[in-house]
Design goal:
The chain is mainly α. It has a domain at 33-105. It is built from three helices and no strands. It has helices spanning 4-18, 35-61, 69-101. The two termini are 31 Å apart.
Length: 105
C-alpha cells in the first residue's frame, strides 16, 4: 500500500488497529497519571514532610514530651533529603529543556 519503509510501518500500524492491537485506539482499564499530576504529588509530599518536620521541631522547642529529639532529627533529615532530591530533579529538568532548546533544527 505505502511506498518505502515508512509506508510499510504505516501499513502495519493500520493492520494492528484493524485487529484491535492499536494502543491509542483502545480504552485502557486504568490510565497512568500525567507528568504534571505526578510532579504535583511529589511536590505535595515534599511539602508535607517539611511541614511535619517544622511542627515536630516547634513542639520539641516548646517542651512537648511526645516530641523526642530522635523523632525531630529523623523528620528533619527526611525533609532535607526530599528537598535535595526535588532540587536535583528540577536541575535535571532545566538541563534537559536547555539541551532540547539548543538542538539545531
Amino acid at each position: 500500500m505505502g511506498q518505502g519503509p515508512m509506508g510499510a510501518v504505516g501499513d502495519a500500524a493500520r493492520g494492528n488497529q484493524i485487529q484491535g492491537l492499536g494502543g491509542a485506539q483502545g480504552t485502557p482499564a486504568t490510565q497512568a497519571p500525567s507528568f504534571s499530576e505526578t510532579l504535583r504529588g511529589a511536590l505535595g509530599s515534599v511539602n508535607e514532610a517539611q511541614q511535619k518536620s517544622g511542627a515536630l521541631a516547634k513542639a520539641f522547642e516548646m517542651g512537648d514530651p511526645s516530641a523526642d529529639l530522635a523523632r525531630v532529627m529523623v523528620a528533619s533529615q527526611q525533609s532535607q533529603v526530599a528537598f535535595r532530591a526535588t532540587v536535583e530533579v528540577r536541575n535535571r529538568l532545566v538541563q534537559a529543556y536547555q539541551d532540547v532548546m539548543n538542538m539545531p533544527l
